[in-house]
Fold each of these.
Amino acid sequence: MQQVPKPSPAFTTNVNTTNVNTTTNVNTTNVHTTNVHLQQQTVIVQHVKRRWRLKSIICIVIFLVILSSTLGSVFNGKSSNASSTSGTSTGTGTGTGTSTGTTTAIPGPRPSSTSFGPLHSDSLMLFPSPLPQPTRSLRPYGTEQAIGVPNTFTYGDMTTAWATSTADGTSLEWLLLDYQVPVRPTRVDVYQTYNPGAVVAVWVFPPGWNASAVDGAKLFWSGLPDASAKPAINVFQCVTNNQTIKGDPLFVVSRVLLIIDSTIPGYNEIDAVGLADQNSSVQWAISVAASSSYAGGNYFT
């Protein structure tokens, strides 16, 4: 039998070397292709992220602009209306701080027991005693905003305080408040939340009497307007300078009348009025009437 000659070692080595080189080239090509695909995917992902980031920023900016415009319209409405009718600036209508100051009223001229001074007593005779209480939700700037405990905690043109129908008027305004329990009056606390310093007189009335000097009302405190009052929430504490009130242990009251000098620039807004007794216990008004209101009417209608 004829034997087939074996391949020489050199030939085998060459074939194996060729296979290794071919395999290495294929693997290198696959790795390169994979890297290219990964780089392309990374570029696409980064591009998508940039687009979404840009869209998010644009949406946030648009939202802030709309929100700012809406809030500005709400708070500037009253100030803009007042400026157009009176020709004077009444502020921006936005709060400028939350600080609260306490001012003790400086005794004014000797009080008179027979006259309301510049305010005619007959102008108050139409109001019943006690005043009617509100029967519906509170209106922005309404007279009824002065009822109850203070709820305006930021200085500025806030809807939660009472405001007169116009700013910078030429006549006096007034705020009449009824209280549940008759007490010996030792102090009247006026929470002024915008353009303070306009209170010039405080009258007090025995329970069941009408708002007239001849019906037992006494001038609790009087003084001059304070144009230098700081622009911050101000608790104006009026301590009586009427010796008759101080010396009469049987004199009790359940009604308070504030006289407001509206020549102090801007809306002179009041959030609440506290009536303190001989034990410094403070109660808050249960019903209110006023010379005018930005919400309209003297009561709540």
Amino acid sequence: MQWYFVAALLTVLTSSQGILTTLSQSNGRYLYDYATVPFLAEAFKLLVSGLLLWRECKVSSSTRMTTDWKSVRLYPIPSIIYLIHNNVQFATLTYVDPSTYQIMGNLKIVTTGILFRVFLKRKLSNLQWMAIVLLAVGTTTSQVKGCGEASCESKFAAPIQGYMLGVLSACLSALAGVYTEFLLKKNNDSLCWQNVQLYTFGVLFNMARLSLDDFSGGFEKGLWWQRVFGGYSITTWLVVLNLGSTGLLVSWLMKYADIIVKVYSTSMAMLLTMVLSVYLFNFKPTLQLFLGIIICMMSLHMYFAPPSMLVDLPSMKPAPESLKEVSVERR
């Protein structure tokens, strides 16, 4: 399976997440407990990975699985980082408005490139660094509202704590992704086995979070497993399947490609979501959106195209044989 096919599929699925989530609402609100969706998505990924691992072991007896505790103990770390990241997200939103937070979220594109270079020792060319910065600029441009709108006055006028937490959130998001890639590539274990370990801890951490939410809420809504399927519709189940499928595709890309491909896929998905929203939700396209799409397409071409396609080097023609060397004496 070629990585660009998986990346394109990831782009389509990711772009439909926001649309499906919006369609799952009824009269502008959720009839289900949306905190149970990530738990069911993790359970779906664990189930699929377990079935694929069972099939792989049945077909081949040489399936590689490292069961040493020194290796297994590394797999809860991504879940812990994401847990901290989610709390930092909520803290950031107490200082900045959602539109500013969304724009600041594009910092994770650059921080991912930096951590990709520092921790995974992957060298990027100058053109690729320029492409990554262009991608961040393009996605930010598509999200900036016109200065004629009322929100323009308050944009980037938040306390310094909000910006510091925004930078921390971008770094944590990048760190979780880069560490997951390191984890998947550090040995030749079966991807299915690695996913089983990752998603087992993912399920456990989501269960702990749901239980903690019940406890902090005084069990007013009862226990979470009593309402886990309450209010679910076909669209809600599509959201769960979508989240689970994108998670499996991301792990494949990190194993056989790299996290930068994943960053491009999710960034292009955001732009695709905006375009689809024009037809589905009467979203009015802006000049900033068109400029952002153009910049991101330029970035995509700069990063993945061969250098020979980007730099037109002058060809050196051999000197004609009829020319004779002329020497000039200095007086």
Amino acid sequence: MGVDETYDLDEEDLSKRYKQLQRYLHPDKYANRNKMEQEISAKYSSLVNEAYKTLLEPLPRGIYMLKLRGKQIEENTVTDPAFLMQIMEKNEEVENAKTEAEIIKLNKEIKLIIQDLQKKLSTAFFGANAQSIRVLGGSTTTIQQFPVVAQLLLDPWDKGQYSQHCAGVIITSRHVLSTAHCFQYSSETGYNYSDPQFWRVRVGSSFRSRGGFLHKVKTVVTHQEFDRYYFTNDIAVLVIAKKFYFGDTIKQATIANKGTELMQNSLCTLVGWGVTQVGGQQADQLQLATLFTVDQMECSLRYKSIGSVISDSMICAGHIDIDGIDGCFGDSGGPIFYKGVVAGLVSFGYTCGNRFYPGVYTKVSYYVDWIVNAIRRHK
């Protein structure tokens, strides 16, 4: 086809090259030629068709590129469940769109996500260093260092099979603070995940697969004005069926005081069990990363370019000089700390670890009254 050996292909250029080749090779051009020329034309026209289809579709293109590098996808490879949940959420947004303008906007966002993913895949296939896709988070830590962190385990298909999906922080012996977007209806499964039966809470363990203590959830309280599209008011409180017993690995968090604001470039700490590599699996052991708060106006302008709104109830934090350090799938609802105090909760972002779009966190200090009222009303 005459295109560069890269996953990040220009589809318009690919289409032009395909059409140019078919102008010369299509069998209709050789209808009046001898039989041999007709057979050669048909053979090579068919090869060009197959090549075009392979390069046009993301999955066949990726498999082909791997073969060029002497690699292949193993037979027992499974789809990353965190990635599936991301796709489910995006499908829900499209299904819930009410106007043509919303659908067009979502299509543009999806196209940008695909383009960004293709660039990262191209780097992964052909970059000289496999570490060019950076580890999201950076290093392992233990629950003894962050005993206020809780895992939220989801049973997505109501089959009694729970696995860590979101995170939160312990704020009383019976309450965990998290984000509302974890507890929404899924059109993909047909279940409403605000129902407490779908959840378990694990505390006191560094590992998402074992250890600590499992607790049933009595009630899920999400903010009544949570917006699933703009992620405003992305906050929730879980009421646990039986109280936590505090110790070295289970403690009560200190949350930011009402109205507290962080200065630009404040050093924060993010912890969670999210994916440690773009497109990779979630970490089994608790991870830690350091982030810097980003100027609110700067963050707002950046997200405005993709139609997202950064409100006063949000904090932006990340590394705007390098890609790769960020919260990601599986970290949702988990905390960022400033000097040991819970300042924010992982809410949303544009892909993971994109330096132009820092992670967005629910500003805890904005919701102190709501949190206190939720605890008083639901015991």
